[in-house]
Amino acid sequence: MGSSNLRKLQVGPETTKGTAVSAAKILVGLDGQIKDTSNLDERQLTYYQGLMTGATTAPIFLTDTAEVAFTGDLTFENAPYIFSAGWKSISPVTGAGSAVWAFPPPTTSLNSPKTFTIQTGDDTEQLKATYGFIDSFEIQGKSNEVLTTKGKFLGRSVTSAVTGFDTATALGATQIPFNLCRLYVDTTGTAFGTTAVTGTLREYTLKVDPGFHFKNFSDGTLAPTSDGQDRPKVTLDVVVEYNSSATGVRANWKAKTPQNIRFISASATSVNPCVYVDTAGYWDMVDSISDAAGNTVVKASFITSPVSTATSGYVQFNVLNAATGGL
Q1: How many CB atoms lie within 10 A of CB 250?
Q2: pLDDT tens digits, 215-234
Q3: CA atoms within 13 A on the CB side of 262
Q4: CB within 8 A of 197, min separation 6: which ones?
C-alpha cells in the first residue's frame, strides 16, 4: 500500500549522458514524480479492414521519453542541482570549508546541462529515468515567506522496480527567507551589486527557459540520443512598493535604459551560504498602481538580454554553499 509520506525524488549525476547511475542523493524540499511521456501511435485502430472492431494489430510507440514536474522550497543544498541541470554543467571552486558555484550565461558558445539519473516513487513502486535535465524552472519569493521553486525535468527510458530505492543520502535543507534577501539595481556598465534598493521589493519571480531540448535521430532507438540549446529566455516579474524607486523603474522603462539587477539570498544564520542571481536587460512592462493590504504597489517585468554594455548576458547564478565538493 503506497503512502505519500514515503515519496522521494532522488538523483545521481551521470558521467556519460544517458547512462544510468545510482540515484544516490535525495533532493530534500522538492517533490516530483516521473511521468512516462512516450508517444503511442494508435492509427492502426482506424485502419479499414472490414471490421467494426478496428485493427487487430497493437499500436506502437514512437518515442521513449519522460518528464518530472517538481515543486518545493529552494534551498542552498538543492540550488546547485537545479542550476546544473537547468543552466550549465560546471564544477565548483572549493576552498576552506565552502564551495563556490558560478553558473555563467551562454555568450559565444552553447551551455550544456548536467544530466542526471532520476528515481521517484514510494514504497509500492519506484520509477527511474535517465538523461534528466531541466527545460524550465522558476524561483519565487514573497514577503514573510521562504523562496520556492518549480520546474520540469526531461528524461528518457523509464524503468520500474518494486524492490526499493537506490541507497541514497539526503541533502540538507537550508531554507531561504525572502525577508533576508537583498536587491541591487544599477545602470548597465557598472558592477553588479553596487546600489542597494531597500524598502521596495515585495515579490519576486524569476522564470528561466534555458532553451535545452532533446534531439531525435534515426539512431536505432526510440529514446533521444543527444540534447541541444536554443536561445534562452529569462524574465523577472516583481511587485514593488510604490515609492521613488518604483517611479525610477517607470522612467527607465520609458527610456529603455539597460540595467543590472542583483538579487542576493542569504541564510537565516549568516551571509554564507548565499545565492546571487545577476540579470542584465530592460524593463519590459510597468503596470498601473494597485493595492496590497493597504499599501500602494506596482507590478513590473524585466526581460533579460545580453546588451552590449552588460557585464553578463541573460542571467548568472552564483551559489556560495557551505558544503564542499561536487554534486
Answers
A1: 15
A2: 999 999 999 999 999 999 99
A3: 22
A4: 183, 184, 185, 245
